[in-house]
Amino acid sequence: MDTPGRRRIQLGYWERNQTFRQRGHVILYRKRQLGHYVHLVARDRFLYMLALPGLLFFALFKYVPMWGLVIAFQDYSPYLGIRNSDWVGLDHFIRFFGSDDFYLLLRNTLAISSLNLLLFFPAPIVIAIMLNEARRQLFKRIVQTVIYFPHFLSWVIIAGISFIMLGQADGVVNAILNRLGFESVGFLTTPEMFWPMLIVQNIWKDAGWGTVIFLAALSGIDPTLYEAARMDGASRLRTIWHITLPGIRNVIVVLFILKLGEIMDVGFEQVFLMGNVAVSSVADIFDTYVYRNGVLNGEFSYTASVGMFKSIVGMIMVITANKLAKWLGQDGLY
């Protein structure tokens, strides 16, 4: 065989050996990496065991039900099941977006969510900062106990309290107004008062509980920063503005991003219990619409498309807000 041909054969053997060596290195690297992961899991096995119930909960109740989203593209019948129901494509979405109810539902849902973001979201931050500035520990603990308690009340109980306090015929507030010579006010039947009433209920119920996360974040701020500020003669307001708020800024950003992901979820129980015919024009949201058409009328496929629309909007809001936060130099959600 001529020399060039022999060189080509030798070069082919050399390239093949190099390929085998590279593959061997990759396999060896992957084995070592897998062994490293196994070692880490074995070392922290008790922590993983503690996390296992939460992971199973999300797997069973969050991810497995996603299989049912396919009925949004079907004319689903419980008797035929998912596999045998007819496919209708995007017909349910077209029907939903073209209905007269869509814009009303969108307006009410976004209005209530926006008011929650503007008024309810800052409330736990303000309360946490006020508690952090409190010097007497006994007073601080009493206030925390009082403001945490409403969180454990169900919306049924809160609705009952609201009816007792705000009822037009025999409500406590209207009874006081009548004693003072004023006319009764229809707090529960006036559309203009429905949205503010929801926000006040949310603040009373959950603002105190929301302070838990912010108080934990405040405890992580270096105390020497406050001592240096006091030595420099800074007032409390300037200390809060320049030390406290920047110290919990990342927590605020993350929770705000998560809150944006729930912008289409106002809360079915509260609106359903407080709503009535007189305020239906401002109380009808996506959740009540799904209940009315899905549970009462049995239109499962149609309401599944509504739920998918809500989920897609929430996902887009989270991704957009996270990218915006990173663009502004903040720590995002991921």
UniProtKB/TrEMBL annotation:
<keyword id="KW-0472">Membrane</keyword>
<dbReference type="InterPro" id="IPR000515">
    <property type="entry name" value="MetI-like"/>
</dbReference>
<feature type="transmembrane region" description="Helical">
    <location>
        <begin position="110"/>
        <end position="131"/>
    </location>
</feature>
<keyword id="KW-0812">Transmembrane</keyword>
<feature type="transmembrane region" description="Helical">
    <location>
        <begin position="193"/>
        <end position="218"/>
    </location>
</feature>
<comment type="similarity">
    <text>Belongs to the binding-protein-dependent transport system permease family.</text>
</comment>
<dbReference type="InterPro" id="IPR035906">
    <property type="entry name" value="MetI-like_sf"/>
</dbReference>
<dbReference type="GO" id="GO:0055085">
    <property type="term" value="P:transmembrane transport"/>
</dbReference>
<keyword id="KW-1133">Transmembrane helix</keyword>
<feature type="transmembrane region" description="Helical">
    <location>
        <begin position="46"/>
        <end position="64"/>
    </location>
</feature>
<feature type="transmembrane region" description="Helical">
    <location>
        <begin position="152"/>
        <end position="173"/>
    </location>
</feature>
<dbReference type="Pfam" id="PF00528">
    <property type="entry name" value="BPD_transp_1"/>
</dbReference>
<keyword id="KW-0813">Transport</keyword>
<feature type="transmembrane region" description="Helical">
    <location>
        <begin position="300"/>
        <end position="321"/>
    </location>
</feature>
<protein>
    <submittedName>
        <fullName>Sugar ABC transporter permease</fullName>
    </submittedName>
</protein>
<feature type="domain" description="ABC transmembrane type-1">
    <location>
        <begin position="106"/>
        <end position="321"/>
    </location>
</feature>
<dbReference type="GO" id="GO:0005886">
    <property type="term" value="C:plasma membrane"/>
</dbReference>
